[in-house]
Amino acid sequence: MQHVRVATYAITNGTADDVFGAGRDGMLPVFEQQPGFLGYGLADDGNGTILSISRWETRQSAQDAAATAAEWVKDNLADRVSLLSSYVGDFGLYVEA
């Protein structure tokens, strides 16, 4: 079974594209170095909220990712986003085409 970390962030300054660039260039390389990393993505809900979704081999890896992401966002994006929610859970179903 795979595990997931899902977080939502309110954009407080800048644009979704700014956050996407920071995620691609900053958060992604950090996650790629973490044990159990399987995937990462960001989505814009169109209403000023970004969804961050990452997949992990173990629940512990996903929980560790939540702490890692919180620290990275504090150090690198605190002037652009505010954390709204963060969840770690088990995938019941995940399919890629």
Indicate the topology.
Blueprint: E1 3-11, H1 16-32, E2 37-44, E3 49-56, H2 59-76, E4 81-90
Antiparallel strand pairs: 1-3, 1-4, 2-3
Helix pairs in contact: 1-2
Strand segment count: 4
Biggest sheet strand order reads 2-3-1-4
CATH-level-2 architecture: 2-Layer Sandwich
CATH topology: Alpha-Beta Plaits
CATH classification, class level: Alpha Beta
In total, how many domains does the architecture comprise? 1
Biggest sheet statistics: 4 strands, antiparallel
H-E string: EHEEHE
Strand content: 35-45%
Q: What's the mean pLDDT score?
A: 95
Give the number of helices. 2
Cα gyration radius (Å): 13 Å
Short recap of the structure:
36% of the residues lie in helices and 36% in strands. A four-stranded antiparallel β-sheet has the order 2-3-1-4, with helices on one face. The protein has one domain (3-90): Alpha-Beta Plaits.
What does this molecule look like?
It is a single chain. The protein is an alpha+beta fold and 97 residues long. It has one domain: Alpha-Beta Plaits (2-Layer Sandwich), CATH 3.30.70.100. The protein has helices at 16-32, 59-76; strands at residues 3-11, 37-44, 49-56, 81-90. The chain has a four-stranded antiparallel beta sheet with strand order 2-3-1-4, with helices on one face. The mean pLDDT is 95.
